[in-house]
Write a structure and sequence with these properties.
The complex is a heterodimer. Chain A contains no helices and eleven strands. By secondary structure, chain A is an all-beta fold. In chain A, strands 2, 5, 6, 9, 10 and 11 form a six-stranded mixed β-sheet that branches. Chain A has a three-stranded antiparallel β-sheet with strand order 3-8-7, with no helix packed on it. The radius of gyration of chain A is 13 Å and the shape is globular. Chain B has a single domain, classed as Sandwich (Immunoglobulin-like). The chains are: A mainly beta, B mainly beta. Chains A and B meet through β6, β9 and β10 of A and β4, β5 and β10 of B.
Chain lengths: 107, 112
């Protein structure tokens, strides 16, 4: 079974500090990986997908096939980054989500 | 607005009742999904439909019956509601199976 692991349930940093949200996936072929974000009382929205290799809101994520990881990084966290972040793997007809990491950026 | 919409946003009901949640997307997508987000914020796939056909039923009790009258709609009917059904239910759609999914605002179901 495909698994997506986000080891940190909670992550708290100060504004301006670097942040890294970890994600590991179980190896199986060529994965399609995503980061979704859910701000308080809002719907899930796509933040990044690995094939686009772009930076959104200062966040980047690099797929490391050797380590089967897709960690999300931002060099300088902002208070508005506080949200629930989900790593997800796409495969036929579904997304398999990690359990999510609640990021809190303190002033 | 192009989007995925769900109704109702909140649903409070008694155990044993039957209820429905509606989902519509105007993105022209062929694939639609239902996810359940539990009290620990864990998201899990329930159903996937492609061109109105059921593709995935992820070990969901048969009290849950999705219905897709057309490609733009995927409704979820729940019979004999139980306390454990309390959750937020998200509808989503995608252009390609397994690709980027667009989510609805969620329906918070509370079973008393």
């Amino acid at each position: 079974a495909q698994r997506v692991t986000q080891p940190e349930k909670l992550l708290s940093v100060f504004k301006g500090a670097p942040v890294e949200l970890k994600c590991n996936y179980s190896y199986s072929g060529s994965p399609e990986l995503f980061w979704y974000v859910q701000y308080s009382r809002q719907r899930l929205q796509l933040l990044l997908r690995h094939i686009s290799r772009e930076s959104i809101k200062g966040f980047t994520a690099d797929l490391n096939k050797g380590e089967t990881s897709f960690h999300l990084k931002k060099p300088f966290a902002q208070e508005e980054d506080s949200a629930m972040y989900y790593c997800a793997r796409g495969s036929n007809y579904k997304l398999t989500f990690g359990k999510g990491t609640l990021l809190t950026v303190n002033p | 607005d192009t989007a995925v919409s769900q109704t109702p946003k909140y649903l409070v009901t008694q155990m044993g009742n039957d209820k429905s949640i509606k989902c519509e997307q105007n993105l022209g997508h062929d694939t639609m999904y239902w996810y359940k987000q539990d009290s620990k914020k864990f998201l899990k796939i329930m159903f996937s439909y492609n061109n109105k056909e059921l593709i995935i039923n992820e070990t969901v009790p048969n009290r849950f019956s999705p219905k897709s009258p057309d490609k733009a709609h995927l409704n979820l009917h729940i019979n004999s509601l139980e306390l454990g059904d309390s959750a937020v239910y998200f509808c989503a759609s995608s252009h390609q199976p397994g690709g980027e999914q667009f989510f609805g605002p969620g329906t918070r179901l509370t079973v008393l």
